[in-house]
Amino acid sequence: xxxxxxxxxxxxxxxxxxxxxxxxxxxxxxxxxxxxxxxxxxxxxxxxxxxxxxxxxxxxxxxxxxxxxxxxxxxxxxxxxxxxxxxxxxxxxxxxxxxxxxxxxxxxxxxxxxxxxxxxxxxxxxxxxxxxxxxxxxxxxxxxxxxxxxxxxxxxxxxxxxxxxxxxxxxxxxxxxxxxxxxxxxxxxxx
Length: 191
Prior knowledge:
By secondary structure, the protein is mainly beta. It is built from no helices and 14 strands.
């Protein structure tokens, strides 16, 4: 092994003191800080990366990005206002839970909404934390919305199968003040 040790009177001068830069007999390389202190990495007279003594990796500014891939296709960063995970290359950005019987969870902060947007910035899905309601939108208009008593559908509903109530002789189709105008049927059974 080839070792370069950097030590001072504060670190001590033993084999487990200071900073070690090593190339071992297997040609593995080490940058090893024996002290309970952080490692700073810098360019252009500024800290660009910080490995803290408790194991956290930090980019200590709002313009630095963690960029992964040959063309930096995946970026994780904070822009000063928002925290962003961004796919900039070809293919999809996939968040995947590969653990059997486990879920992928996306959580908003306390009283924060969960919102999903399509490519042009149009809001497509919103789950409101305050009301516990969810809205599904298309073309900027709400088409399906949950409410405290059920759900509201705006527009047409096409069913490719049976529409069946969850219990027998318990639910109405319409009300005395909200009646269906026309019912089209091949074979009508009334009781």
